[in-house]
Amino acid sequence: MTxxxxxxxxxxxxxxxxxxxxxxEKLCDQGDLLxxxxxxxxxxxxxxxxxxxxxEFESRINEELTQLSKDLKSWCYKPSPVKRVEIPKPGxxxxxxxxxxxxxxxxxxxTMKHLLEPIIDxxxxxxxxxxxxxxxxxxxVDAAQKIVKSGKEYVVDIDLSxxxxxxxxxxxxxxxSDHVSDKRILRLIGMILRSGVMINGTVxxxxxxxxxxxxxxxxxxxxxxxELDKELEWRGLEFCRYxxxxxxxxxxxxxANRVMESISRFIEHKLKLKINxxxxxxxxxxxxxxxxxxxxxxxxxxxxxxIKRAMLKVKELTPxxxxxxxxxxxKRINSWYIGWSGYYLxxxxxxxxxxxxxxxxxxxxxxxxDQNKKRRFLFRKxxxxxxxxxxxxxxxxSNRGRWVLSRTKALHCAYPNRWFINRFGQEIRSTDRMKHxxxxxxxxxVT
Length: 447
Fold this sequence. Notes:
The protein has helices spanning 7-21, 23-28, 30-43, 54-59, 61-74, 103-120, 137-149, 169-177, 183-193, 217-234, 253-270, 304-317, 326-343, 351-371, 375-384, 389-396, 402-405, 409-414, 417-430, 440-446; strands at residues 82-88, 95-100, 154-159, 197-199, 202-204, 238-242, 245-250, 281-284, 289-290, 293-296, 299-302. By secondary structure, the protein is an alpha+beta fold. A four-stranded mixed beta sheet has the order 2-1-4-5, with no helix packed on it. Helix 8 (169-177) packs antiparallel against helix 9 (183-193) and helix 15 (375-384) runs antiparallel to helix 16. The longest helix has 21 residues, at 351-371. It is globular, with a radius of gyration of 27 Å.
């Protein structure tokens, strides 16, 4: 005999339904739209196809939000096409296609995310770490480390090919309808997904994919991939997923190959997404990177690929034959390195930071050699810096190139590590940058 629902459960269902049905009214409320604009303002960003900047929108905020609210209520609101921007991927691996919505549209997207996230996010898997309140790359890597330590050192590294560009709209709306009963919200999301892309002045229709650059897209991507999370949990597999970067951990290479084959079929046939067979792989944790990190014998290290890209970035920031002043060069290096090292602080090998710093200093010492066009000028400079004359002469007149000279004892005596700190450290501290790039080990202890 089927159990009849109690009055209390009926009221709970009715309350939930009423709250969800009121989502569209909340979206049209100017107070909620203002909350959405504040989120857009914090993130900043370039203008969309209409050329309106965040500052210009804010200068007439009351009129803009009033009109936007009216347009939403009357269904006169039509999302504009997004502006296509191509961002080169690291290592010359092609380009990443980004879309820049207009500020007006971004306010709608951000407001919708603000309203939907408290409803949908609690239903996501605890193994999903990307674009969620209270989650971070650090927590994802820590979780992966614990799994590897438990004995599951073989990793199934799945790479989704152009994930954001291949999301199936019908499946996405269907998944959203499991959480949101307000058809008006679903209809509006469908309009946003199909708003099109402007490329060189021509609007192209979008039949699949989400806008990588919209405030709403991270939430929608998690809705799509939550189906993968639930499938992995149902199979009893341990995994960590950050956006479209998913690592599954097993105990043996045989199990890893079996999981790779079956999960690839599920993703391509059920989710209608495509696996990048070239980048997807099976291997030990020490050979697979996850969010730029590698787990080696249970410890976290910066991956070899990330270190290589950092070295190339240092080379880019310290070019030969430049007219950029040394002070400006240092400022640019700091701007990049403070952010880079802040992310990779999760490494348990501080020597990786020291290697980057040493490379920066050597590049700068090589620049000092370059600045002295004649060897006798370099000789005088070294002597002036306190290097003994015989050592200076032996170094300078040895016919060795700039890169070899940059690593000699004479150059280290003339420009030791302390010289860089004394000359440029005060400038960095005056701008409240505690994370001094010349002494990472010091601010690691501070933080």
